[in-house]
Amino acid sequence: MQSPLTLKLSAFVALSETDLQTLERYHRRRRIFQANHELIHEGQKNHSAFILAEGWACSFKVLPDGERQIVDFQLPGDFLGLRSILFRTADHSTEAVTRIEASEVLATDIFDSFAEAPRLATAVLWAASRDEAMVVEHLVNLGRRSAEERMAHFLLELGARLKLVGIGNKTGFDCPLTQYHLADVLGLSAVHVNRVLRQMREQGLVTFQKGRVTFDDFAGLVRLADFDTDYLDQDGPLLR
Amino acid sequence: MQSPLTLKLSAFVALSETDLQTLERYHRRRRIFQANHELIHEGQKNHSAFILAEGWACSFKVLPDGERQIVDFQLPGDFLGLRSILFRTADHSTEAVTRIEASEVLATDIFDSFAEAPRLATAVLWAASRDEAMVVEHLVNLGRRSAEERMAHFLLELGARLKLVGIGNKTGFDCPLTQYHLADVLGLSAVHVNRVLRQMREQGLVTFQKGRVTFDDFAGLVRLADFDTDYLDQDGPLLR
């Protein structure tokens, strides 16, 4: 069975035997963390990155007044803290949302793999670029979209990302996030999140109940959010 | 004389002769564009990327209602549209703010250079990660910082980035941006931008007049914005 990371990178590049063997070595140090464990702390030096195999994580920054801005959630196949192992100092924190399984990756693992399998370097740069494209969409959410548009865009994005790694489909997905997670990523209060979700359920667009997001009107949500999957670039493989 | 890109990447990695020669080849196709020329259009396929040598550019997304969210400004040494040449479709637009000089780079230039100089792959991944870290800070600006904190953080960031490529210093920098640019990147109205800049000038923090940003109280601005250059990771070289 292919790892979620392999599934994801395959959307960009047809991986060769060498690429796959090199990728395999990213998965030597398997770790398990409980929910809420902080894997990477902002300001930390010499930490590792991780590749998520199971469960959900989130990356965030805490402000001097204690407020938190969630930058993104990480799903199976995503890197945790990849950006930060290239930097001297981690520029953000990452914690487990659920119990997670993840492989620990050192900066040297990444550098060595690039020398052995340059196509993999391109694939990792693609994955990092895709992460950046998502942060850009979250920026547009905060800067220019209404609360309902933000919610629709964010839930559609999660659905599309999960579908790529074989979890979830057009009808919906299992979702461990709380109203506080949604508030901290969408720049809303928890009360506002509740009201927006209730309105969208009453309009027959989407239902988020009992840990499951159900797309009641997928096309309607796409229209509301002006959602276009181009920035996820997952209609795979481009590079053969 | 070193190109701004070489100066920038040298903050991360001590470039070898091979790395430098490979980098040199990114600069074969030099182009000149007038101010306001759109180099990359959102939704465009098969376009090129560019490396900025002189002048300022900006990347942005336009929403269905015509509103614009500026994601970032690009300065000498920065890639324009690097993310998008890895994708099938450009996920954002890029235009010249001033007259610019830039080298056109194709996806194959990038892929070939990674095969020849794997350390360069790491350096380009670092540069892309740094771009992402800046977008994250702009996200935090919109989500969690006051108008004054946003302005202070943004101007300090521009100053630090320009200093890295040998333009500007702790006293300030020449800045071609209008109040509309500032409004579109900071999520404020142009009127609000003017008011905030006036207040900050009267408080003796910063003056933006006649195309020049002057840091009147650098330490005070850093305190106001809680500005920490760690996310720019430019105290290099880390990788020798």
What are the salient characteristics of this protein?
alpha+beta; four-stranded antiparallel sheet; 240 residues; Arc Repressor Mutant, subunit A; globular; Jelly Rolls; homodimer; 2 domains; 9 helices
Could you please describe the fold and organization of this structure?
Two copies of one chain form a homodimer. In chain A, 52% of the residues are buried. The longest helix of chain A is centred in the middle third of the chain and has 27 residues, at 118-144. In chain A, α4 (107-116) packs across α5. In chain A, a hairpin with a 2-residue loop joins β10 (206-209) and β11 (212-215). Chain A is built from nine helices and eleven strands. Helix content of chain A is 43%, strand content 21%. The first copy, chain A, is α+β, with helices and mostly antiparallel strands and 240 residues long. Chain A is globular and about 55 Å long. In chain A, the strands form three sheets. In chain A, strands 1-8-3-6 form a four-stranded antiparallel β-sheet. In chain A, strands 2-7-4-5 form a four-stranded antiparallel β-sheet. Chain A folds into two domains: 4-129, Jelly Rolls (Sandwich), CATH 2.60.120; 145-232, Arc Repressor Mutant, subunit A (Orthogonal Bundle), CATH 1.10.10.10.
